[in-house]
Write a structure and sequence with these properties.
This protein is α+β, with helices and mostly antiparallel strands. The protein has four helices and five strands; from the N terminus they run αβαβαββαβ.
Amino acid sequence: MTNNRLWLNAKSVYLETQGTWGICVGAADSATALHIATEMPYRGDKMRVASLGVLRAAGFDLVMVDEPPHAVLLLNAEPTGKTWDGWDRLRSLFTEPHVIPR
């Protein structure tokens, strides 16, 4: 996901939640990435994967929204726009993109 798309996603979450910075992600306890990918309406044909433990160790957290696998990855700081250096830090916690089988 490009910095611009991440920023737009974070801004959307902020507006919808009236003050919480985060990005929409897919997450489910004990589910494989393939299961999550097939359960969510992904627009793209690739996804990155990270464990909640890795994300929490880096200072991020996750809250489930609606029903799994819909979740919000909480940002630990207000992003300052498309050039925020936190995007690269966050991206480094995830694997390289995997193709989602259709």
